Amino acid sequence: MTSLLTRPPEEASRLIALTLLVRVEAAAERLRDGDDDEALHDFRVALRRLRSVLRAYREPLRGSVKKRHRRSLRDLARATGPGRDAEVAAAWIGAQRDALSEEQRHGAEWLMQRYAARRGHGRDEVVQRLDDELEAVAGELRQALGVYTRQVRLEGEARQDSFGELVGCEARRDLERLLELLAAIETAQDGEAVHRARLAAKRLRYLLEPLAPSLAAIEPILVRLRRLQDLLGELNDARVLTADLASVVETAARERARTLFAAAVSGEGETPEARDGWEPVQGLLRLAQRNRERRDVLFAELAAGWLGGGEGEGGEAAGAPDRGEERRRLAAAVVDLVGWLEVGFSPPPPASAESVPEPVR
Asked: What sections of the chain are H helices per DSSP?
């Protein structure tokens, strides 16, 4: 991996992008087969990683990646959203079954049916886009990323920047952005701030991941970034589910009202489902309550380890003495790594779990 760090940015960024493109195509093939429950998630993640690299290395990739390529990949990524959101919500609701009464489970089952339909529709749309868009875009990118030209000046300063120095510059910028966005999160209701911080954490993680196999100092950074991403991701899932539940409660109430009205007008009495107490609204409201409880627990954990200043929501954890310790450790590790990358480096010895090799001065 040190050889990758010392290569020209134009070459190293293309090698990484081509590797990630292969993973996108492999995940797409699994998605076409239709028998893999994780295929949609893996395709979505592979796309996200590729787009993140194309964004981070926009300048060295200039000439190979066009605006239309970026737009197509963006549209594909957006198309995976509804189906994946339905998968995540259905998995969480399924795990709540033991906490629901028999009557409340009617609401959970009613909602699960809706998510199953949404998931199927979302997957079908993505598969259609694979045939319409991905094949052409992947072919063009594979050809364009396979070659590059570089201008080298022989006069004046002969030294050329390395890929490692570019990674250091991007990592510093991504870290600053992440810390800024974490500072903007004040309460569990700051859903948009949580969403933006989650994206920033992913970008920093995806930037560093390709270097991890041969640079031991990166793994402890990735461990913390994954922990942060998981927290922010679950908080975002809770936010999305809250909005969805607000909508479906209204839908269920309307359907219930129409059923009762039709029974009153026809004189035939209530349907068997209504007579037996089949009523999704109660179950949906219980799920909303459970989701709020989940959100508060997650925010307490986020506040304890990652947020600084002020009191958080969620009890004692938010006011613990080591408040923000995870954030500080992450920032220190990234700053050390960036310093080593930016100053210049030689093949590093194995790094400890909490340090990076000393930079070459």
From this structure: 2-6, 9-33, 39-56, 67-79, 81-95, 102-129, 135-145, 163-183, 191-208, 218-266, 272-275, 280-306, 325-343
Q: Tell me how far the alpha carbon of residue 256 is from its chain's centroid.
A: 37
Instruction: Tell me how far apart the alpha carbons of residues 232 and 19 are, in angstroms, rounded to a whole number.
Output: 27
Cα three-residue angle 194-196-202, rounded to 5 degrees: 100
Closest by alpha carbon to 334, among 198, 177, 196? 177
**What span, in angstroms and rounded, lies between the C-alpha atoms of 341 and 171?**
10
Distance CA 44, CA 81 (A): 8
The mean pLDDT value for 321-330 works out to: 85
Residue 148, Cβ density class (10 Å: 0-12 exposed, 13-18 middle, ≥19 buried): middle
d(CA 303, CA 186): 9
Q: Is the pLDDT of residue 65 over 70?
A: yes
In this structure, what token pair is assigned to residue 222?
């990735």
pLDDT at res. 268 = 65
pLDDT in tens, 78-92: 999 988 899 999 999
Which is nearest to 344 in space by CA: 87, 21, 2? 2
Q: Are 10 and 148 in contact (CB under 8 A)?
A: yes
Most confident of 101-105, 145-149, 308-312: 101-105
pLDDT confidence of residue 360: 34
Sign of CA dihedral 125, 128, 134, 136: negative
Q: What is the mean pLDDT of the chain?
A: 84
pTM of the model: 0.81
Using CA atoms, how far apart are residues 45 and 360, in angstroms rounded to an integer? Answer: 36
Q: Which amino acid is at 193?
A: A
Question: Band of the pLDDT at 269, cuts 50, 70, 90?
Answer: low
Residue-level length of the chain: 361
- Domains belonging to the chain, first-starting first, are 9-141 (1.40.20.10), 162-348 (no CATH)
Burial class (CB in 10 A: 0-12, 13-18, 19+), 247: exposed
